[in-house]
Amino acid sequence: MVDYSPALMTDMYEYTMLDACMKDGTANRKCVFEVFTRHLPAGRRYGVLAGTGRILDALERFHLDDEDLRFLADRKVVSPQTIKWLENFRFSGSIKGYREGEMFFPNSPVLQIEGTFGECTLLETLVLSILNYDSAVASAASRMVTAAKDRPCMDMGGRRTNEWAAVAAARASVVGGFQGTANLLASQLYGLKAIGTAAHCFTLVHDSEKNAFESQIAALGKNTTLLVDTYNIEQAVQTAVEVAGPELGGVRIDSGDLAALAQRVRNQLDALGATNTRITVTNDLDEYAIAALQTAPVDSYGVGTMLVTGSGAPTCAMVYKLTEREGADGAMAPVMKKSKDKATVPGRKLAYRSYEYGLADAEHVVSGSEDKLASFQPKDEWKDLLVPYVDHGQIDAQWQGHDAIMRAHDYRAKALAELPITAQSLMKGDPVISTEVSVL
Amino acid sequence: MVDYSPALMTDMYEYTMLDACMKDGTANRKCVFEVFTRHLPAGRRYGVLAGTGRILDALERFHLDDEDLRFLADRKVVSPQTIKWLENFRFSGSIKGYREGEMFFPNSPVLQIEGTFGECTLLETLVLSILNYDSAVASAASRMVTAAKDRPCMDMGGRRTNEWAAVAAARASVVGGFQGTANLLASQLYGLKAIGTAAHCFTLVHDSEKNAFESQIAALGKNTTLLVDTYNIEQAVQTAVEVAGPELGGVRIDSGDLAALAQRVRNQLDALGATNTRITVTNDLDEYAIAALQTAPVDSYGVGTMLVTGSGAPTCAMVYKLTEREGADGAMAPVMKKSKDKATVPGRKLAYRSYEYGLADAEHVVSGSEDKLASFQPKDEWKDLLVPYVDHGQIDAQWQGHDAIMRAHDYRAKALAELPITAQSLMKGDPVISTEVSVL
Fold it and tell me: Member of which family (chains A, B) (predicted)?
């Protein structure tokens, strides 16, 4: 099993800023930080938020042990005063945000972190790492699942991304609509359905393909999926049904013209009486390849590289920005940076999605003084997009673990169905609804 | 600190194949597996290998604890016989491969794993995850470093990739020629130089930019780097020098037209007497943006998104293939799959690079029977590309830890300088040398 703290999975400047603010007193100022992206990847219609549950897991693990503190002290990253503060560090602030599986758009405030400057700053890098990667994978997964229609998509991408990212990708792919993963650690940690077939080396290590198939069926039963493209596919399918009989669970094709091969293999299986034997295809699939296979007799898709690398968009460009903070007078004041092309909208935000005839027609991001926000009345049919995750340090456990992932999986399908159908198109274009930012 | 085993960071089928082969006896067959890529990312001239040292670290950590074994048993991933074998699992095979920092090309056998089928199979997913991601980052880093010429490049990308991938990316970026990283855990684990400036929120949480600069200098000294684009850059530079004096270490610009702004800021700093104050630029830099800044008075580059996502190529498409195995007669026999477009070259490989006038002109991959390989005589000027990493389970520790990373860092520069200079061009094209595969 795994045991670690994410406390140092962060940019050094989070700690040096904390230290400077400890010295001048601003570390204790109340703050509101906001996570959002300025734009979706080019041509994408929507994004799917994922990773929030992992942030909550990370908060629980977040502590500095003696070795970490010694490292920070020896390297003079922070001063002894800050070391002392860090010894008992525990996030005591509050977090709201979009649900996992919720759609997001440019300027959607997908996460809001409220607390002291010191404690919120320490979370910046970690929060962004998690949301940027997980949401990139979930967003790609969602497009693939749409292209696959009712056929299940399975994550087989672990080998094409960092070994820990693979675990996060498996989880995010399920949030994004996938049905299972090849990754065992993801299955162990999150209770996800683990799936698998066999590799070419399994056939090659045996003296014949027949021996290999017999061995796999002896170990895993007739419902297993046999890999049939190590040598000659037609011969392999023949052998597979000879060995397993018509009850053979499935075959996998991993090379060549997948549509044409699936058609040939389907006809061959049917002729052999194996009419219920499923066909799984793999081989650098992405949402476009899956869409192109719609008319082919394929039963499920194993997706690798393009899933775990976000299908051309391996990150979401999410940023973590201070939008409001306590001033010297103790009053909360909105703040904004004015950097060219990167200016921020000041103030804490409310976020709603409005609907017409049951279809979303806009994202409403509302900012203003705390007084005005408190008395703001959204329209009846608006959906409040912000749910509470952490209340003064208390994590709401309903957003963690297996059940939360499966609820997010279901929620994504529902939320996507409520968007204009253009969202389900693979045609490049603008975000399918616009984000209206207003200041009260 | 971190403590974990990577034993379940793998696709389930590695364990189910092991189990089937335990039952039929082939798990004990001696095997040779090979890692290679069939192609470089489109237009790339070379790749830079990284991650091998992390594979050795992972081998040391690789064990299954009671919880892992119970998981595999409860889920019926493997049978009780295999659980027993896994209880004491320790890789007892041998590994050779390219050095970290070495250039690789299509079909370069960057890693060779020899051992029983069972033990080699369990490593497949993990080995590929590490090499595919780390080499993607190192390959991108190397192009950026070339574009930056003598100016240092620093990794600031952790927030744009998975939080663990961030640590691997920091390490791989240094193998690829970077000088340091913002990532604290990478600094702690690998002794890498940690660097950092400040974020916009640091300026915003203070009552004025001047207060923020004073605070940072009080905490970190005048040699620190101040972020000057939160409000108005010209005003910020004025304030920065007022506060720190001409000894100010540096300023960072994170938005706008970086070349034009660097020029203005340089002139302003010089006019204020701060002639030694360095200018760092950041903001979605990639190798092309860095090349475009060659004539601008920039002193260092902070690179984020495009580094940790491989600058358009977030994985290397490396595969792990069985090339030779013991047969029923106990003799080693080359094997190959014949899948369309994915056939493999059978047999264990030797690998050399040949030179003419001190410049590499080809990669030579030599295969054949063990007898013929044993008596093969490379030409005098050929470089043997395979170094021994693990000998019958014994890891050669010289390839692990900080010193190994810095040697790889130096080695990359040397190996790149020995390639035709076209390799250093950002123009898209074919691999700069070709790989000649021959069978003895």
Answer: Belongs to the NAPRTase family.
Q: How many CB atoms lie within 10 A of CB A280?
A: 24
User: Token digits for B235?
Assistant: 């005003």
Burial class (CB in 10 A: 0-12, 13-18, 19+), B73: middle
A322 touches chain B (CB under 8 A): yes
Confidence band (pLDDT; 50, 70, 90) for B340? confident
3-state secondary structure B355-389: EECCEEEEEEEEECCHHHHHCCCCCCCCEECCEEE
In contact, A121 and A93? CB cutoff 8 Å: no
The answer to whether B251 touches B277, Cβ cutoff 8 Å, is: yes
Q: What is the DSSP letter of A183?
A: B
CB contact under 8 A, B314 and A198: no
Residue type, B162: N
Question: Is A164 strand, coil or helix?
Answer: helix
Helix (H) or strand (E) holding A137: helix A117-148
Contacts of B273 (CB under 8 A, 6+ apart): B241, B246
The Cα B97–Cα B113 span in angstroms is: 9
Q: Do A161 and B133 touch (CB under 8 A)?
A: yes
What does the pLDDT read at residue A1? 65
What are the phi and psi torsion angles at B92 (to 5°)? -115, 10
User: pTM above 0.90?
Assistant: yes
Question: Contact A340/B71, CB-based, under 8 Å?
Answer: no
Give the DSSP H/E element, type plus range, for residue B321: strand B318-326
10 Å CB burial of residue B259 (0-12, 13-18, 19+) is middle
Q: In angstroms, rounded to a whole number, what is the distance separating the alpha carbons of residues A306 and A291?
A: 14
* Nearest partner of A413 among A192, A173, A146, judged by Cα: A146
Mean pLDDT over residues B131-159, rounded?
98
Are A189 and A168 spatial neighbours (Cβ–Cβ below 8 Å)? no
The helix-helix angle for B209-220 and B233-244 (nearest 10°) equals 40
pLDDT at B262: 98
Nearest to B309 among A134, A204, A314 (CB): A314
Helices (H) and strands (E) in chain A, counts: 15, 20
Tell me the pLDDT of chain A averaged across its residues.
97
State the maximum Cα–Cα separation within chain B, in Å, rounded to a whole number. Answer: 82
Residues of B in contact with A343 (CB under 8 A): none
Tell whether B149 lies on the interface with A, counting CB pairs under 8 A.
no
- Tell me how crowded residue B72 is: count the other CB atoms within 10 A of its CB: 23
**Shortest CA distance from B342: residue in chain A:** A255
Enumerate domains of chain B plus CATH numbers.
Answer: 12-138+313-346+384-428 (3.20.140.10), 197-298 (3.20.20.70)
Q: CB B194 to CB A255 under 8 A? A: no
Instruction: Please tell me the distance from the alpha carbon of residue A233 to that of residue A262, in angstroms, as a whole number.
Output: 10
Residue A432 and residue A419 in contact, taking contact as beta carbons nearer than 8 Å: yes
Residues of A in Cβ contact (< 8 Å) with B214: 24
Q: Which residue from A318, A49, A360, A353 is spatially nearest to A176, judged by alpha carbons?
A: A49
pLDDT along chain A (440 residues), means of 10: 88 98 97 98 97 98 96 97 96 98 98 98 98 98 97 98 98 98 98 96 97 97 97 98 98 96 98 98 97 98 98 97 96 91 90 96 94 94 97 98 98 98 96 95
Strand partners for A266: none
Name the nearest CA neighbour of B93 among B68, B72, B122, B66. Answer: B122
Give the count of beta carbons closer than 10 Å to the beta carbon of residue B288.
14
What residues contact residue A42 under an 8 Å CB cut-off, 6+ apart? Answer: A428
| Interchain proximity B197–A13, CB inside 8 Å | yes
- Ramachandran category for residue A77: left, alpha or beta (phi over 0 → left; psi -120 to 50 → alpha): alpha
> What is the ipTM for the molecules in this complex?
0.97
* Angle between the N-to-C axes of helices A12-24 and A80-87, in degrees from 0 to 180, rounded to the nearest 10: 110
